[in-house]
TrEMBL record:
Superkingdom of origin: Bacteria
Region (Disordered): 1-22
Entry-linked InterPro entries: ASHA1/2-like_C, START-like_dom_sf
Family designation: Belongs to the AHA1 family.
Protein name: Uncharacterized conserved protein YndB, AHSA1/START domain
Domain Activator of Hsp90 ATPase homologue 1/2-like C-terminal: 32-153
Length: 161
């Protein structure tokens, strides 16, 4: 299953369940080890994240990830301004990375969880789940339809690091 199939499955599950607060889920396969896939996701975030989807856009300087529970993810603008994206909840290298997210929607932060699993033929399955949707933030869920494109950027980065 590729990320497009998963995106369609996610949309189908949402339509069938009628649950507008259902988690957004996507998977992508990368031809690297789990450790390398994790490092590319966490330490390479500023490389693969689309700069147009940041508060600073072309004025983005960097995205900083403090890769430990309680750490922060912070976007830095060239003008010295900062915007906190969220807090790291779990950071298990090669296994899982989870953090809150609140830069693009109102209400409670949501939670992005990324799991890294070995594939039988080699490589890693990266499964992203974006959940925590409730009445306070549900209006922002529609802004998060671009995960497949972001994960494709991530895959390209992970496989060429």
């Amino acid at each position: 299953m590729d990320e497009h199939d998963t995106a369609q499955a996610d949309d189908t599950a949402l339509a069938e369940s009628g649950d507008a607060s259902a988690p957004i889920t996507h998977e992508v396969e990368v031809a690297v080890s789990r450790t390398r896939a994790w490092d590319a996701y966490v330490h390479g975030l500023e490389e693969w994240w689309h700069p147009g989807w940041t508060a600073f856009g072309t004025g983005l300087d960097r995205i900083e990830v403090e890769p430990h529970a309680g750490g922060r993810i912070i976007e830095h603008g060239r003008d010295g301004e900062q915007r906190e994206w969220g807090e790291v909840l779990e950071a298990e290298p090669g296994e899982r990375f989870a953090h809150t997210l609140h830069p693009s929607h109102e209400g409670d932060p949501t939670v992005v969880t990324v799991d890294f699993d070995d594939l039988p033929h080699g490589g890693t399955r990266v499964r992203l789940t974006h959940g925590g949707w409730n009445e306070s933030n549900l209006a922002g869920r529609a802004k998060h339809t671009d995960w497949p494109m972001l994960l494709e950027r991530y895959r390209a980065h992970a496989q060429h690091v």
